[in-house]
């Protein structure tokens, strides 16, 4: 791994937005890159209205806030993106993201968040210019197998994840991502993601074509 090459200064200020259906292998591909380049990347700490779980610390896993405080921040326009899941609110503030400098921010967000970010990023001062990256499975049948194989899902959570996957894949099919990486062979996908994340020469054109998906395979 080319850890001796520092990150390209031209990309440091561009948040890297990584999305892809649950089970597509985002963590598998990203984790070795974070290890190979310590101190290079940062994840913004989200705000949430959910209660802290045992061992969680305010300001470390999340900024834990009340619903009132959260909604005040929404009204103040502080969130680049926010959404409600399971009765709780979660969001990323512009401040949480800019506090990561000089590290490159990696955002692992859901489709709803991406849609908001696309609307708001250029309105910030200074404007944000994210790179939108989609990690695609080689096929929807393989996506299902990986989710099952991980052994972490109940039937219900599997269904939810596959429904979310459908929306994410349909969005990817509109061609709005800057780069697509197909996670077929982990090592090849890792090398491509490293090139994009570090901004190595040719990073803009090292992506793959989106596979031809048959959405019905998710049924
Ligand atoms: N290229 C690959 N080939 C085969 N199996 C893979 C590949 N990439 C990942 N996997 C396996 O697929 C499963 C899902 O991977 P992982 O947990 O990294 O997905 P994820 O996209 O980060 O999911 P989530 O969004 O739910 O966190 C894991 O069991 C992982 O070992």
From TrEMBL:
<dbReference type="InterPro" id="IPR017665">
    <property type="entry name" value="Guanylate_kinase"/>
</dbReference>
<dbReference type="GO" id="GO:0005829">
    <property type="term" value="C:cytosol"/>
</dbReference>
<dbReference type="InterPro" id="IPR020590">
    <property type="entry name" value="Guanylate_kinase_CS"/>
</dbReference>
<feature type="domain" description="Guanylate kinase-like">
    <location>
        <begin position="13"/>
        <end position="198"/>
    </location>
</feature>
<dbReference type="GO" id="GO:0004385">
    <property type="term" value="F:GMP kinase activity"/>
</dbReference>
<protein>
    <recommendedName>
        <fullName>guanylate kinase</fullName>
        <ecNumber>2.7.4.8</ecNumber>
    </recommendedName>
</protein>
<keyword id="KW-0418">Kinase</keyword>
<dbReference type="Pfam" id="PF00625">
    <property type="entry name" value="Guanylate_kin"/>
</dbReference>
<dbReference type="InterPro" id="IPR008144">
    <property type="entry name" value="Guanylate_kin-like_dom"/>
</dbReference>
<keyword id="KW-0067">ATP-binding</keyword>
<keyword id="KW-0547">Nucleotide-binding</keyword>
<keyword id="KW-0808">Transferase</keyword>
<dbReference type="InterPro" id="IPR027417">
    <property type="entry name" value="P-loop_NTPase"/>
</dbReference>
<comment type="similarity">
    <text>Belongs to the guanylate kinase family.</text>
</comment>
<dbReference type="InterPro" id="IPR008145">
    <property type="entry name" value="GK/Ca_channel_bsu"/>
</dbReference>
<dbReference type="GO" id="GO:0005524">
    <property type="term" value="F:ATP binding"/>
</dbReference>
């Amino acid at each position: 791994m080319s850890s001796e090459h520092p990150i390209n200064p031209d990309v440091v200020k561009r948040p890297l937005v990584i999305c892809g259906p649950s089970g597509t292998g985002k963590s598998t591909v990203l984790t070795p890159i974070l290890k190979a380049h310590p101190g290079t990347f940062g994840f913004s700490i989200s705000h949430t209205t959910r209660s802290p779980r045992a061992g969680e610390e305010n300001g470390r896993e999340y900024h834990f806030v009340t619903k009132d405080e959260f909604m005040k921040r929404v009204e103040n326009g502080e969130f680049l993106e926010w959404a409600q899941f399971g009765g709780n609110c979660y969001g990323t503030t512009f401040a949480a993201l800019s506090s990561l400098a000089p590290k490159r921010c990696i955002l692992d967000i859901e489709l709803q968040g991406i849609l908001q970010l696309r609307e708001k990023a250029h309105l910030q001062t200074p404007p944000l210019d994210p790179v939108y990256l989609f990690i695609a499975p080689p096929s929807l049948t393989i996506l299902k197998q990986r989710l099952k194989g991980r052994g972490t899902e109940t039937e219900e959570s599997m269904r939810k994840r596959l429904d979310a996957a459908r929306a994410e894949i349909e969005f990817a099919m509109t061609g709005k991502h800057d780069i697509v990486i197909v996670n077929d062979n982990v090592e090849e996908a890792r090398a491509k993601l490293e090139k994009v994340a570090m901004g190595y020469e040719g990073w803009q054109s090292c992506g793959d074509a989106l596979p031809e998906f048959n959405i019905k395979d998710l049924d």
